[in-house]
């Protein structure tokens, strides 16, 4: 019995020693407050898209057989370049006929006007003779009447010239309806049709593939949806950053160029406002394609040199854990915050420069009052074999 009591006492003593022994300090990572840039950012809710400032899906106004196809996909063209032409020999012949009529009318005008000038000189001569009593009034009247008739004939022929030129314009307009020209300089993205095929214009309300899809790739912008709550603080001219899945390691700069004047209300989607960001000059080795997915961050405010902490260190209620005066125990600090984004948060009050704060919040034991040991990540990596 005595031995059992001694054994029990020993077990109790061991358990008490285990329970009452000092707790092992928790290893934590801490970062120091620093001075630097903090920006307030607004990001898109869904992926945006690279778009061209000018893009035209060109189609012909008339139907007809494709006679000439002057471009292919990927070709770069200048403004006014002829891209596609239907069979139009009859219209070209009609245009030549109209031009010939213009030349004929101009010749008739020249003849009539030359005669009118001669008749005016004859009137002047007859008046001089009449004043010298060398010509009769009847002769002067006949000369003046003839001069007036030839003058009107000159005007009539001038009108015929204008009428012939108007007919040429009509024939040129008809011919132009069979020719598809580039309305601006750009690159041919798509060609629908082959020589010999019949091209049919799109009837009203029925979408058909364009004959030529032309894109001006010299001017690109990003259109992205922004939540209606965030869109209210965005203004045209604000700086923005653009990132693309196709260029993961690069960020491009730009400016807000347009904010849609209405909110999109699509079923099963949050209400958003489309915001356009025009890209600044791109590096020579970057070739963006229309249709790339893109994300934007609009910089609504920025403080270039301010006290900041990593945003991941923030606790609920705008608190952080920092070291107490003993340098071993965690204590909670209430902060007054300024600008913030996913990476950095501005601290207006509550911390001082170079003050350490807890960033390893994944340890549930790291609470206020816990004893800690700060891990030096640089030293630990150096000690590893």
From TrEMBL:
Residues 154-181 form a coiled coil. Residues 222-280 form the CusB-like beta-barrel domain. This is Efflux RND transporter periplasmic adaptor subunit. Belongs to the membrane fusion protein (MFP) (TC 8.A.1) family. The keyword Signal does not apply. Pfam families: Beta-barrel_RND_2. GO terms for molecular function: efflux transmembrane transporter activity. Keywords: Coiled coil. GO terms for cellular component: efflux pump complex.
């Amino acid at each position: 019995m005595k031995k059992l009591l001694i054994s029990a006492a020993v077990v109790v003593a061991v358990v008490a020693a285990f329970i009452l022994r000092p707790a092992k300090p928790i290893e934590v990572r801490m970062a120091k407050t620093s001075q630097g840039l903090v920006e307030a950012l607004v990001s898109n809710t869904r992926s945006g898209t690279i778009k061209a400032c000018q893009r035209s899906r060109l189609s012909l106004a008339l139907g007809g057989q494709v006679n000439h196809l002057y471009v292919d996909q990927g070709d770069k063209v200048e403004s006014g370049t002829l891209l596609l032409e239907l069979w139009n020999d009859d219209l070209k012949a009609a245009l030549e006929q109209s031009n010939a009529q213009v030349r004929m009318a101009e010749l008739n005008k020249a003849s009539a006007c030359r005669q009118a000038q001669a008749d005016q000189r004859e009137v002047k001569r007859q008046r001089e003779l009449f004043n010298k009593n060398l010509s009769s009034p009847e002769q002067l009247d006949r000369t003046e009447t003839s001069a007036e008739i030839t003058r009107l004939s000159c005007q009539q022929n001038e009108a015929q010239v204008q009428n012939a030129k108007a007919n040429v314009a009509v024939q040129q307009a008809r011919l132009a309806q069979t020719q598809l020209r580039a309305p601006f300089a750009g690159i041919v993205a798509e060609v629908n049709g082959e020589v010999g095929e019949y091209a049919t214009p799109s009837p009203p309300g029925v979408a058909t593939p364009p004959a030529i899809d032309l894109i001006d790739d010299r001017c690109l912008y990003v259109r992205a949806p922004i939540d209606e709550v965030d869109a209210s603080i965005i203004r045209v001219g604000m700086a923005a950053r653009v990132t693309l899945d196709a260029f993961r390691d690069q960020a491009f700069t730009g400016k807000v160029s347009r904010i849609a004047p209405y909110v999109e209300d699509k079923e099963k989607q949050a209400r958003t406002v489309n915001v356009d960001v025009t890209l600044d000059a791109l590096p020579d080795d970057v070739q963006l394609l229309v249709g790339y997915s893109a994300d934007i961050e609009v910089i609504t405010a920025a403080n270039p040199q301010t006290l900041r902490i990593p945003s991941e260190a923030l606790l609920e209620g705008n608190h952080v854990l920092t070291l107490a005066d003993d340098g071993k125990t965690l204590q909670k600090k209430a902060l007054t915050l300024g600008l913030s984004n996913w990476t950095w948060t501005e601290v207006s009050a509550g911390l001082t420069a170079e003050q350490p704060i807890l960033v390893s919040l994944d340890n549930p034991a790291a609470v206020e009052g816990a004893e800690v040991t700060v891990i030096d990540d640089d030293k630990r990596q150096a000690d590893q074999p």
